[in-house]
Amino acid sequence: MEIKQNASAGTTESSDIMITIGKNSGQGILIELDSSVEKQFGRQIREKIQETLTNLSVTDAKVQAIDKGALDCTIQARTVAAVYRATGEENVDWQVLNTWNV
């Protein structure tokens, strides 16, 4: 999927994550993370975002994530929503999304 515009999903409330995604001008995937649990779970949060982008065939994007202790399923859902908003894609294949491991 190609990122066409900046888009975001989520909030900065407790137990949530705000994902903002935009173009990265052919630079691949760049994930910037600001998390209240960075030391304990920073690597896992980045991996979940990367895995979700890979499953959506996103190869070029700049992701800014502000995490407030979100669970993996929330990280995945917010990333998917931001990607679909940023690509302008309206036809979500929910069957494929349901087969992912969370």
Blueprint (SSEs and pairs):
Blueprint: E1 7-9, E2 17-22, E3 29-35, H1 38-55, E4 61-67, H2 72-87, H3 94-98
Parallel strand pairs: 3-4
Antiparallel strand pairs: 1-2, 2-4
Helix pairs in contact: 1-2
General description of the model:
By secondary structure, this protein is of the alpha+beta class. It has a single domain, classed as Ribosomal Protein S5, domain 2 (2-Layer Sandwich). The protein has a 4-stranded mixed β-sheet, with helices on one face. Strand 1 and strand 2 form a beta hairpin. The longest helix is centred in the middle third of the chain and has 18 residues. The chain starts with 6 loop residues before the first strand and ends with a helix. Its main location: cytoplasm. This is Citrate lyase acyl carrier protein. GO terms for molecular function: lyase activity.
Structure in a nutshell:
This is Citrate lyase acyl carrier protein. One of its GO terms (cellular component) is cytoplasm. With 102 residues, the protein is α+β, with helices and mostly antiparallel strands.
Keywords:
102 residues; Ribosomal Protein S5, domain 2; 4-stranded mixed beta sheet; 3 helices; cytoplasm; CitD; lyase activity; Mal_deCO2ase/Cit_lyase_ACP
Secondary-structure class: alpha+beta
Summarize the biggest pleated sheet.
4 strands, mixed
Computed over alpha carbons, the radius of gyration is 13 Å
Please give the order of strands in the largest beta sheet. Answer: 1-2-4-3
Q: Can you tell me the CATH class?
A: Alpha Beta
The pLDDT mean sits at 90
Tally of discrete structural domains:
1
Note the beta-strand portion: 15-25%
* Number of DSSP helical runs: 3
CATH topology: Ribosomal Protein S5, domain 2
Helix content: 25-40%
From N to C, what is the helix and strand string? Answer: EEEHEHH
Q: Name the overall outline.
A: globular
Distance between the termini: 21 Å
**Unreliable segments (pLDDT under 50, ≥5 consecutive)?**
none
Q: How many runs of DSSP E, i.e. beta strands?
A: 4
GO molecular function: lyase activity
Organism: Enterococcus ureilyticus
Function: Covalent carrier of the coenzyme of citrate lyase.
Subcellular location: Cytoplasm
